[in-house]
Design goal:
mainly alpha; 6 helices; Transposase; 134 residues; single chain
Length: 134
């Protein structure tokens, strides 16, 4: 260590020792150009996605599909910004992983529908639920 570090010498040694033990993929974001690296960058990416969704749909608020499929849409928005995909790229996707993701999205979608039904008519929703349980 350089003697110029002075009293920071032990802190720098500790920082180097600690960061050296981190998982190798922890700082993967620095290997990809234009990838969100900080919370502010990530919030900016969310904001851009929300903004584009509003412009595409003409709505003033985010659509419910953004709530349900937001994780997929955000990943797609970032990925397509970084790389142009061809049909052959998409054909290489593992079908089982894709089906599992679709299943998870369907569960979220069903939960949102149930929430909507409850808000729209709580008495009928609870009566239906009670009849199914008894």
């Amino acid at each position: 260590m350089l003697p110029k570090a002075g009293t920071l010498n032990t802190a720098i040694d500790n920082f180097i020792k600690t960061t050296h033990s981190y998982w190798s993929g922890l700082f993967h974001c620095y290997e990809i150009e234009d990838f969100p690296r900080t919370n502010n960058d990530l919030e900016h990416a969310f904001g851009l996605l929300r903004h584009h969704q509003r412009r595409c749909t003409g709505r003033k608020v985010a659509s419910s599909s953004l709530v349900i499929r937001g994780s997929v849409k955000l990943a797609c928005a970032i990925a397509t910004k970084l790389h142009s995909f061809t049909a052959s790229d998409l054909a290489q996707v593992d079908i089982h992983t894709w089906l599992e993701l679709r299943s998870q999205l369907q569960k979220h979608h069903k939960a949102r529908i149930e929430q909507y039904r409850f808000r729209r008519n709580p008495k009928a929703y609870l009566a239906n639920l009670e009849s199914r349980l008894l």
